[in-house]
Amino acid sequence: MRTAVVLFTRDLRVHDNPALAAACANADRVVPLFVLDPKLAGLSPNRLRFLHQSLADLRATLRDRGGDLVLRTGDPVAETMKVAGEVGATMLGMAADVTAYARRRERRLTAECERERISLRLFPGVTIVDPGVLRPGGGGPAYKVFSPYHRAWQSATWRDEVATPRRITVPDGVAAGGMPAIGAGESPDAAGGGETEGRRRLGTWLNHLDPYPDLHDDLPADGTSRLSAYLRFGCVSPLALANAARQRNAEAYVRQLCWRDFYYQVVLTFPKISTDAYRPNADDTWRADPEALKHWQDGQTGVPIVDAGMRQLRAEGWMHNRARLITAAFLTKHLGVDWRPGLAWFFRWLIDGDVPNNSGNWQWVAGTGNDTRPYRRFNPIRQAQRFDPDGVYVRRYVPELKSVEGAAVHQPWRLPADIRRGLDYPGPLESHRDEAVWLRP
Ligand SMILES: Cc1cc2nc3c(=O)[nH]c(=O)nc-3n(C[C@H](O)[C@H](O)[C@H](O)COP(=O)(O)OP(=O)(O)OC[C@H]3O[C@@H](n4cnc5c(N)ncnc54)[C@H](O)[C@@H]3O)c2cc1C
Description:
GO terms for molecular function: deoxyribodipyrimidine photo-lyase activity; DNA binding; FAD binding. Residues 2-128 form the Photolyase/cryptochrome alpha/beta domain. By secondary structure, the protein is an alpha/beta fold. The chain folds into three domains: 3-125, Rossmann fold; 127-159 and 195-269, Serine Threonine Protein Phosphatase 5, Tetratricopeptide repeat (Alpha Horseshoe); 290-438, DNA Cyclobutane Dipyrimidine Photolyase, subunit A, domain 3. The protein is 46% helix and 6% strand. It is built from 20 helices and five strands. The protein has a five-stranded parallel sheet, sandwiched between helices.
């Protein structure tokens, strides 16, 4: 009787899950395991809620196939080794990952498994193309610029999707462990987690792919897939999604998924991405301005397009990509505030918040990362007029401005004084008041 443990991390699905498929093919008994690490529990109530929903869904799906999801709480390495010992496992499989946290866990598991003579195998599945596989022509361990990476990525051979195991046999006598209570999260309009919900949304999305190239920057249209959180937790396989999009010739969409892979391979060679500037000496002299930061966090800067984005973040635990660009650029390039507290705020609220994509994008916007034009500035008013021409997006998230019609909503400081006085909406920030002049397109 061969017994394997599959340690789930951020691959919370049964479809196209190489670690789970291999365990079911090579062992007679399989323990699907998830370990809740209390150290991560406090990071983001939104993500914790989504995680717990995803675990409940995974357990139900595994039970439908005769299996179960075994849950433990504690140090992931110690708990995994304890379970492996209890069931006499000779194999341990899990998805390979790139962050400093994940790689420390992998290193510790490797050492423990060697000691216990358990064969540890790391599988693909978190990205489409494995990080580290594509190497830049001029040398170096990772691509630093997106375009050449994208070209290499497009012509790379992708692995085959693996079949969903039909039956999973868990050894007798393993305590399943109690499912954590699903908390309220912090965002009232947050999406619900789980593979079942992710697959349902994916199915719907595939019928809406055609207008993506025209609509993906259009703020009121909300014409993006909103699958990021499902990708973040692996409820949807990025490879299965990319294959389905490719079959529909949706290359513009597939290109966005390539950005996700791009940042994963960056992090593999630059694990300090959340704290250190990626380009040496690229960090600006940032201002410390707690008051401006607080106004930005609260969606009270007095610049409506910025405030709309920041309020969407709180309400939904998600923000449109165009709004992420505008709000992040406003904090760093206009207020001159360090990108790290901005990154931390996004990381607390975003359900899709993960180290490679959050930190990689923040550094891109701040001009410390992989952007080939690091001194780019976004004019938030021009951005608002272009991507929210009638002000629909702003009015959706800033109800104080509901009575202001059309594009006038983007520059409330230009409204006649008596109307402006009637609005319960702040004027531009003190530290930013001079900029109001050039903010005028
Ligand atoms: C400052 C800032 C912070 C960000 N933080 C995160 C984050 O923590 N997690 C995250 O998943 N994305 C992050 N993004 C990227 C992007 O905004 C989101 O992936 C996207 O808005 C998610 O919505 P969607 O699924 O509808 O995207 P779609 O437009 O439908 O795109 C499909 C998928 O492609 C990937 N993708 C799209 N754009 C990017 C991008 N610029 N970088 C990397 N992957 C991309 C995502 O996985 C996304 O789900 C950030 C962008 C910025 C500017």
